[in-house]
Write a structure and sequence with these properties.
CATH class: Alpha Beta
Strand content: 25-35%
Radius of gyration: 14 Å
Largest sheet: 5 strands, mixed
Strand order of the largest sheet: 3-4-2-1-5
Order of helices and strands: HEEEEHHEH
CATH topology: Beta Polymerase, domain 2
Distance between the termini: 36 Å
Mean pLDDT: 91
Number of helices: 4
CATH architecture: 2-Layer Sandwich
CATH superfamily: Beta Polymerase, domain 2
């Protein structure tokens, strides 16, 4: 069963990395601590937080399905990410205080994680 999750994850991440507007990709939620190639993998979905250079809304949430694997993807602009930290938005702080960094084009991921951890 795990090979399907790994294939879906790699497909989604590679598609996201091709978007020049995407700065950082974080794996959050319960799946961040799982081995996606484990044979008896039991996950509900894969949660991703995406930081973009620019975006119209503060947060855009998208649910997609690849190879029968559900993804819950939250997109934030760089500006809104720092605004959520400044406002101490609990959902944002909780998710990004201990994520797995998947992609970091501008080296801002560690700064975001540190700022979130400082608020815990």
């Amino acid at each position: 069963m795990g090979k399907k999750e790994k294939l879906a994850f790699d497909t989604v991440i590679n598609n996201l990395k091709n978007d020049k507007n995407i700065i950082s990709i974080f794996l959050v939620g319960s799946s961040k601590n799982k081995n996606l190639i484990e044979e008896n993998l039991n996950i509900n979905d894969i949660d991703l937080f995406i930081i973009k250079e620019k975006q119209i809304s503060d947060q855009i949430r998208e649910f997609i399905n690849y190879f029968d694997v559900e993804f819950d993807i939250n997109y934030f602009s760089k500006e809104s990410a720092y605004k959520y930290i400044e406002k101490k938005e609990k959902f944002f702080i909780k998710a990004l205080s201990n994520p797995k960094i998947v992609f970091d084009k501008e080296n801002i991921s560690l700064d975001i994680i540190k700022k979130c951890n400082d608020l815990k």
